[in-house]
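Many introductory courses stop at the sequence. We go one step further.
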Amino acid sequence: MLHLHFPNPSAFWCLFIPVARAVPWVIHWHSDVVPSGIDRRLRLFYQGYKPFEQSCLRRSKSVICTSRPYLEASLPLKPWVSKCGVVPLGLNPERFFDSEDERVPPRGCEWPEGGLRVLAVGRLTYYKGFEFLIRAAQAVENISVQIVGGGGLEERLKREIAL
């Protein structure tokens, strides 16, 4: 079994490698490639990307999506809904601790008591939308946000947080 993560142009090589084509594929679908108002080249890029994306989806045995609403809204997945299943993102903390004593977070990751807690993990790039999370959190009372990741927008996001 070959487990591919999308979007991932390097996964397209599997279409041309005989040993890869000889085994069943499962695609873990993280995101549609969508046109960007920030980088207009993505719209042009997608025209070349889409045939390979759809060939991989056609070839796959199954596709894992992260939520039912996402699956229902995804245009690239529409033809393949019958082979899609949902595995939600998130963790059940009960699976990671043997006792209440072990529920102490690592230093630097403490959360204030009460209120909404938001943990956002990902590469700090424009299409992840961290700047929108930061602005929204600044407009809400009693919220704690921790962003984990690195990338080209790190300094810009730090300035946005400091405002």
